[in-house]
């Protein structure tokens, strides 16, 4: 702590504050026995605990001016103690959150403690971070409230993990719906061509098996294998695996031409996800929704990897209204991660999709 720390520690119940909020979970033990001659004074011990806490611990006056600022506050917010002490606490509060300070001070004046309040604060460099904030009143020797102590913990990673979990759950829900839609479509294909119940059953099993193979490509199961090696294939092989379930009487409804390229690892998964989205939409609304429909794919690979997707013989298509659903968001995120671009031509005779990815990215 700085010079004012001993005075601050006289008026704050830092034993409770630090023991319950510090991520280091330091425990303060008191004893009725006299301390040894070499034992540090209680105030100095508490000051050391505060100064070395993993959580940012800050005190301020009732006017909002900072009176102490520990090392973790320096790391978390980017201001040194010399820069922060004496400044108004609003230096770390975003403009759209300034109203929170009035609410906090109002609670402190009323003697109320605010626990684990999740909010957003601003670093010296302007970046924002998610924090969990605990605020307690500071009282003088007469019991009068003279300020507040704040303990802030960075929860940015926890927030990001929760957002990733929600995204994965949404993707899983989206993919399950797509799989059911495709399964329903391939059963319809088998129904049109089969002449007996055993033939229908064999055909449906083969198509479902093809769907399972395609699903393995989009989400490879690494399991607990220590020496897991990323899957590797070619783009043409990927297309054939993904669309094997759409064959009718052994005739492939998706043809591919141009220059084949090797794909592996994250690139394989990303391309499989994109093609899966394309095929799902074609199965629901486009060329693969009718028996006579088909798809032509043309691939070029020079400075950029480029793909042209043409739907032929399907129902008339029109550009949908609105921003699109989760599938559109997933497609946009996937293309962005590949540093690529995607365009669509909504021709009534059939949809055209143009996908471009830098060849340097494809080779990673």
From TrEMBL:
Q: In this protein, which residues make up the domain named PAS? A: 42-111
* Stored Gene3D superfamilies: PAS domain
- Give the molecular function GO annotations: ATP binding; photoreceptor activity; protein histidine kinase activity
- Domain PAC positions: 115-167
| Top-rank lineage group of the source organism | Bacteria
A biological process from GO: regulation of DNA-templated transcription
Q: According to the UniProt entry, where is the signal peptide?
A: none
Has the keyword Kinase been applied to this entry? yes
Recorded protein name is Blue-light-activated histidine kinase
Please report the organism this UniProt entry assigns to the protein: Rhizobium tropici
């Amino acid at each position: 702590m700085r010079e004012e720390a001993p005075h601050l520690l006289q008026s704050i119940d830092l034993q409770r504050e630090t023991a319950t909020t510090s991520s280091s979970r330091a425990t303060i033990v008191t004893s009725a026995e006299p301390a040894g001659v070499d034992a540090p004074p209680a105030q100095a011990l508490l000051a050391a605990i505060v100064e070395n806490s993993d959580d940012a611990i800050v005190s301020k006056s009732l006017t909002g001016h900072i009176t102490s600022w520990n090392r973790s506050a320096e790391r978390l917010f980017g201001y040194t103690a010399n820069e922060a002490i004496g400044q108004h606490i609003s230096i770390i509060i975003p403009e759209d959150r300034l109203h929170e300070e009035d609410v906090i001070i109002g609670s402190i004046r009323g003697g109320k403690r605010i626990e684990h309040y999740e909010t957003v604060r601003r670093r010296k460099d302007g970046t924002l971070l998610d924090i969990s904030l605990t605020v307690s009143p500071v009282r003088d020797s007469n019991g009068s409230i003279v300020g507040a102590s704040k303990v802030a913990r960075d929860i940015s990673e926890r927030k990001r993990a929760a957002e990733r979990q929600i995204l994965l759950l949404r993707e899983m829900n989206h993919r399950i719906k797509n799989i059911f839609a495709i399964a329903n479509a391939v059963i319809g294909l088998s129904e049109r061509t089969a002449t007996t119940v055993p033939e229908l059953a064999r055909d449906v099993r083969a198509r479902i098996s093809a769907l399972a193979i395609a699903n393995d490509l989009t989400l490879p199961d690494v399991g607990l294998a220590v020496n897991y090696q990323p899957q590797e294939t070619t783009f043409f092989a990927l297309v054939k695996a993904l669309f094997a379930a759409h064959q009718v009487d052994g005739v492939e409804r998706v043809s591919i031409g141009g220059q084949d390229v090797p794909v592996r690892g994250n690139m394989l998964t990303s391309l499989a996800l994109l093609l899966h989205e394309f095929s799902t939409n074609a199965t629901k609304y486009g060329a693969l929704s009718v028996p006579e429909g088909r798809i032509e794919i043309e691939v070029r690979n020079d400075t950029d990897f480029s793909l042209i997707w043409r739907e032929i013989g399907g129902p008339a298509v029109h550009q949908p209204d609105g921003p699109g659903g989760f599938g559109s968001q997933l497609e946009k995120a996937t293309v962005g991660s590949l540093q690529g671009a995607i365009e669509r031509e909504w021709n009534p005779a059939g949809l055209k999709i143009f996908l471009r990815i830098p060849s340097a990215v494809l080779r990673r």
